[in-house]
Amino acid sequence: MYSIGDLSRRTGVKIPTIRYYEQMGLIEAPERSEGNQRRYEKRELERLAFIRHARDLGLSIEAIRDLLALSEHPERPCGEADRIANEHLAAVREKIARLRKLEGELERIVARDGDHKIGDCYVIRALADHSMCESEH
Amino acid sequence: MYSIGDLSRRTGVKIPTIRYYEQMGLIEAPERSEGNQRRYEKRELERLAFIRHARDLGLSIEAIRDLLALSEHPERPCGEADRIANEHLAAVREKIARLRKLEGELERIVARDGDHKIGDCYVIRALADHSMCESEH
DNA sequence: GTAAAATACTCTAGCGACTATAGATATGAG
DNA sequence: CTCATATCTATAGTCGCTAGAGTATTTTAC
Fold it and tell me: Is this model's pTM higher than 0.80 or not?
């Protein structure tokens, strides 16, 4: 039996976050002690570790809910789980691509600034004038 | 004189977002028509374009407020604007680095899944067991 | 056995940067 | 003048937590 604090220490998920996941239906409401405190079994520990890992990988609460539901039906085909993971991978790749463009713009802006006055500041001018950009964004 | 809709069409910033920027103090409260509707000058159009551009580049409202304040004092040295741009560049680079790691993990997870049942699904198992990961995250 | 310290409880509000809705009013074209 | 479209304010919702207040319980030390 673990208290919410034990669970938090062992999974690295903060206490209010655990309660939040309960509210969101990612984990079931656990048993309570006589004094109304949450008491967890090992099962919940593993489930929470799964959630933590998936969140670290950037999956949404929604996606995690789906994956958890799937994992409770081991006899069904796993194409759906694949689909969720693949979709997420695509989203991550797109984010990277967009950030690389921004990186490029910012590099150009930063690179050429010397030691002069605002009125003549490349940072300010570059931000004000979109047409100075090299790529679309 | 532009209506808020004109401004929106010309800058690509949605109408409620323009009003939100006004609330946040990024743009001044404009004149009003007899019937209390917002009427903008060209100045506001340019300012909004600046804001839009900076947001696209991922700058926070806070940072943009700073830059706008700076741009209103052209006599001051521009080291401050430089600093903001540089800080932001560092943040973007860090974001990219983290996403690349996630991409790697997700690729590994997705790659090896064939056509089988949830009970034997790599996606699910990999998420449940952090030790299957190659790098820290 | 009791007091103090640590932990947990619920409830509410806040973050950032919007987005959506409802219900009322204004504007512009025909 | 009518009617469609545009705009107004105010409020609440989004996501995924996080923080705080005020109260209650559990654990530890003596």
Answer: no
